[in-house]
Amino acid sequence: MEYLVMLPGPTNVPERVTRAMFTPTINHRSKDFVKLYTDVIEKTQKVFQTSHDIVALTASGTGAVEASVVNLIKKGDKVIIPVNGEFSSRLATMLEWQGANVIRLTTPFGENATFDQVKEAFDNNKDVKAFYVVYNETSTGTQVRYLDKISKLTSRNDSYFVVDAVSILGGEELPVDKWGIDVCIAAGQKAMAAPPGISPISISPKAKKYMIANPPPTFYFNLARYFKYYDDTKETPFTPALPLLYAFREALDIILEEGMEARIKRHRVCSDAFYSGLSAMGLSPFAKQDARSTVVIALNYLQGLEDKTFRSTLSEKFRVLVAGGFGELKGKVFRVGCMGEVHKYHVMRTISAISSTLDMMGYKTNPEALKVAEEKLKAL
Ligand SMILES: Cc1ncc(COP(=O)(O)O)c(C=O)c1O
After folding, report:
1. Which fold has domain 16-258?
2. Which residues contact 213 (CB under 8 A, 6 or more apart)?
3. Minimal CB count within 10 Å: which of 5, 117, 201, 204?
4. Is the beta carbon of 164 within 6 A of some atom in ligand 1?
5. Which ligand 1 atom is nearest residue 167's CA?
6. 246-261 burial string, b = 16+ CB within 10 Å, else e?
């Protein structure tokens, strides 16, 4: 029996998308490929709500995040970045490895730096070159809610606005052009419900110009090469992962058929049902209320509840997959992905399986939890 993949990536992949991977191989230097790749780029632009260039990298999200760093940042550049979990820490480290002078706005896990703290950092660092931010900190289940205001700060000194939207694009609001985002990074295997391996990245004309004029000493992730190939022939510089591109195109079609507005509402309603139902059951969300993510639900383990036994029981007895904690949260929290295909069925089956697992492990749970979630799901 198939698993219900409630991980914060990879997530459940619709059958239509999986089938698309069986499309026979084509020549990646041909009209067939130009049709496939331009389709992917144009549909991705619609989902990102941007007219900017898109590069669909054959890599997981980390590859696209690294590309955003090596193509934009040089030794000594000043960069501001809020740090509140594993992925923002990793990004700050990558920036440091690149030689940047990194100003970390560190807050406790489960909380976000406030907009005022970000503004203060801009006020104190007029020579900042870029603001990097992880929109949805997957390791702690937190989400930043002021990205619409950041371009007011970056436009003051013409600095770059870079968003790691790996775990959220396709599930929440993210109008790239309206919010003035220069570089936006996503990954197929999360809220876009595609298989892992394609990570699209959007690049504004200003950032593109800079990257072409200042190419990094790298080969595979040198974005200037991708711009040249796309502008000249609508191809990629290196052999693309063809089956994954077919699947990604199908996943984009599904997103566009549903429409972003309906999709965002579905993610919000399902996350509300998760938070409410699981709280009623006796579990407490890890993130502070105002920082809670609508695509990743992180929950504190109950006293004595052992991570490995809990998750292996969920997986083996109920075929439901959830993730453990990362780094210093290992063994302290578990995380439920509320992404991509997530709908009533996924929420109810996951809550029910968690409840049964807790019962089997000797914890008393509130049978009302399912009713509470069901009530919230009526909004769909
Ligand atoms: C916010 C964020 N950034 C980057 C990554 C890295 O992505 P990948 O595991 O696809 O390389 C992840 C993965 O979960 C993520 O959640």
Report:
1. Aspartate Aminotransferase; domain 2 (3.40.640)
2. none
3. 117
4. yes
5. 16
6. bbbbbbbebbeeeebe
Using only C-alpha atoms, what is the Rg of the chain? 21
Tell me, what's the pLDDT at 264?
A: 98
Nearest CA to ligand 1 atom 8: 61
Q: How far apart are CA 319 and CA 171, in angstroms?
A: 24
With a 6 A CB cut-off, is 132 part of the ligand 1 pocket? no
Ligand 1 in contact with 60 (CB < 6 A)? yes
Instruction: Report the alpha-carbon distance of residue 165 to residue 162 in Å, rounded.
Output: 9
CATH 3.90.1150.10 fits 259-377, yes or no: yes
Confidence of residue 6 (pLDDT cuts 50, 70, 90): very high
Would you kindly state where each structural domain of the chain is located, as residue ranges?
16-258, 259-377
For residue 330, the number of C-alpha atoms closer than 13 Å in the C-beta half-sphere is 5
Residues 162-197 as b or e (16 or more Cβ within 10 Å = b): bbbbbbbbbbbbbebeebbbbbbbbbbbbbbbbbbb
Q: Give the per-residue pLDDT at 327.
A: 87
